[in-house]
Amino acid sequence: MDSIPQGQSGELPYPRIPSERVFEEHRRLAEESRGSISTGRWMWEWVKAISTAILLFLVVRTFVVEAFKIPTGSMERTLLVGDFLLVNKAVYGAEVPYTHTHLPAFSEPSRGDVIVFLPPHDPTKNYVKRLIGLPGDTLEMHDKVLYLDGKPQPEPYVRHIDPITDPGDPQMMWQLSYLAGGEGAQRYYHPTRDNWGPIVVPPGKYFALGDNRDNSEDSRYWGFLDKEAIKGRPILVYYSFERDVAHPFSWVTGVRWTRIGSMIH
Q1: Which one from 129, 205, 216, 240 is the annotated catalytic residue?
Q2: Catalytic pick among 74, 216, 219, 240
Q3: Where are the domains of the chain?
Q4: pLDDT of residue 106
Q5: Residue 175 has pLDDT above 90, yes or no
């Protein structure tokens, strides 16, 4: 029987791995583990940050401030086509979505306020007009002059562009139901753009007109507003440009710099 050399066992010896190689392998595995954890943590932090930003944006847009664009000239000279507005939705009590309830208001709609609202004839669109009549007011117009409770009203913000014609419109006949003076007045009532009333604003209703009186579709034609339809009050113009169909980049070249940041009254 062969003898086993001294200092050796009957098992095959394991190959010796240098300690430097072992240390390097441990360090590589640790770095890969840390890298995996760091990447996952980085992605999670970004998801949290983006989700928080989106949530805050939705909360602010729903209950505090929303942006609107002016598409028509019905509020010229106060607001121009191409004005972009920030609207305070909290001032009158923002609506809680899908509940038909409103948060507490900071103030009530006041005569002379510029307001954003959903009109009764087309509640899918936002309109911007000036609030003229409050519940209980008696309103009328004679030769373009607005009267409140029998007194002519100073309106420095109003613009008139058509001094000659005074068209009537069958839509205006809704005013018959609110006409002051009884049936005798109703019999001969033929309202026109510049001559109508007197009509009485019923409880819970409001009356709005455009500042560009000769070119505005407003309460004269489609009637009173419900308080719940009023969404907010514009604060300022945050951007404005004069659109020019001949120049596709007029949103850059046609910027009205002097209007940016102007407050709305």
Answers
A1: 129
A2: 74
A3: 17-63, 67-259
A4: 83
A5: yes
Q: Are 240 and 70 in contact (CB under 8 A)?
A: no
Residue 188 is predicted with a pLDDT of: 85
Dihedral, 146, 150, 154, 159 alpha carbons, nearest 10:
10
DSSP for the chain?
Answer: -PPPPTT--SSPPPPPPPHHHHHHHHHHHHHHHHHHHHHHHHHHHHHHHHHHHHHHHHHHHHHTEEEEE--SSTTTTTS-TTEEEEEESSTT-PEETTTTEEPPPSS---TT-EEEE--TT-TTS-EEEEEEE-TT-EEEEETTEEEETTEE---TT-B---SS---B-GGGGGGGGGBTTHHHHHHT---BSSSEEEEEPPTTEEEEE-SBGGG--SHHHH-PEEGGGEEEEEEEEEEEB---TT-TTHHHHTB-GGGTT-B--
The pLDDT assigned to 5 comes to 47
For the cut 70, the answer to whether the pLDDT of residue 30 exceeds it is no
**What's the topology of domain 67-259?**
Umud Fragment, subunit A (2.10.109)
Q: What is the pLDDT of residues 222-251, one digit of tens each?
A: 999 999 899 999 999 999 988 776 677 676
Using the predicted structure, report yes or no on whether residue 63 has a pLDDT greater than 60. Answer: no
Is position 74 annotated as part of the catalytic site?
Answer: yes
